[in-house]
């Protein structure tokens, strides 16, 4: 799902799954036992932090997700892939679609919000690197002034993804936002898919991260992206047609007056019209 500067995809076997727009929500089909990965793309030049929620839980600490949860840093014009529930700085346990009772949320007794993936994204606060120097004496050209440099990092400056504390390290820092559960329970509307799947706690795989500091540009996320998932049967019940083909809409505008490409007169598919000689095909 693409939303302004960010895109969130669910990958199965490395391929992006098909998304369905229904009644103002985006749905994907889940199949029990299938492992999946969440890919987040930052199309902006600025760094951002992504707080990821699966079934109402933070994928980093397993607690109920909120704007204050830890997240992953994404460099500008970069992307990250989140493979599972983080258990330490070096490993995660893979995501996979499960029944409700087999979900991680059910097993840690925090169920009720299964069937939704949420990503809240915050840009990084810009740091002013301008400095003013005052000298009582004229500057000597053979001396290089001591130019201070302030780094926004604590412990490194080359990171693609990092497990970070987003609660701000400053002493006396106030609560950054109202606690919001991205994976709110489904409404009573009959047009919504029944939550019949959850996400399980799969096998452990290596996925190392580094902890860094990150100061948010705003207390409120720049974007919140949600992807709902359910079984094929449940999605069919709300009217999603899996057999439909893409539809072409006739436009009244003449900017694109044609339909499909027609070969030019005399074109030969064997020599592709590239030869200067007479075609004898």
Can you offer a commentary on this structure?
The protein is mostly beta strands. It has one domain (2-237). It is 4% helix and 30% strand. It has two helices and 16 strands. The strands form two sheets. Strands 1, 2, 3, 6, 10, 11, 12 and 15 form an eight-stranded antiparallel beta sheet that branches. Strands 4, 5, 7, 8, 9, 13, 14 and 16 form an eight-stranded mixed beta sheet that branches. A hairpin with a 2-residue loop joins strand 1 (2-3) and strand 2. The longest helix has 6 residues, at 232-237. The radius of gyration is 26 Å and the shape is globular.
- Structure class: mainly beta
How does the major sheet shape up? 8 strands, antiparallel
- Note the overall shape: globular
β-strand percent reads 25-35%
Portion of residues in helices?
Answer: under 10%
Multimeric status of the protein? single chain
């Amino acid at each position: 799902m693409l939303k302004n500067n960010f895109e969130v995809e669910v990958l199965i076997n490395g391929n992006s799954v098909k998304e369905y727009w229904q009644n103002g929500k985006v749905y994907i089909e889940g199949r029990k036992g299938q492992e999946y990965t969440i890919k987040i793309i930052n199309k902006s030049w600025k760094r951002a932090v992504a707080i990821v929620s699966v079934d109402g839980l933070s994928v980093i600490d397993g607690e109920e997700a909120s704007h204050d949860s830890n997240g992953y840093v994404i460099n500008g014009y970069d992307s990250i892939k989140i493979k599972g529930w983080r258990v330490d700085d070096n490993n995660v346990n893979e995501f996979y679609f499960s029944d409700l009772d087999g979900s991680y949320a059910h097993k840690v007794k925090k169920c009720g919000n299964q069937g939704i993936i949420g990503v809240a994204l915050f840009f990084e606060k810009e740091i002013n690197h301008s400095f003013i120097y005052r000298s009582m004496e004229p500057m000597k050209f053979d001396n290089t002034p001591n130019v201070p440099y302030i780094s926004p990092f604590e412990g490194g400056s080359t990171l693609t993804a990092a497990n970070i504390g987003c609660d701000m390290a400053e002493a006396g820092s106030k609560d950054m936002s109202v606690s919001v559960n991205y994976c709110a329970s489904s409404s009573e509307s009959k047009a919504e898919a029944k939550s019949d799947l959850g996400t399980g706690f799969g096998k452990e795989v290596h996925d190392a991260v580094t902890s860094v500091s990150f100061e948010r540009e705003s207390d409120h996320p720049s974007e919140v992206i949600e992807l709902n998932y359910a079984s094929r049967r449940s999605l069919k019940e709300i009217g999603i047609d899996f057999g439909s083909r893409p539809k072409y809409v006739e436009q009244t505008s003449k900017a694109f007056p044609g339909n499909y490409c027609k070969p030019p007169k005399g074109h030969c598919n064997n020599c592709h019209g590239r030869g200067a000689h007479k075609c004898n095909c």
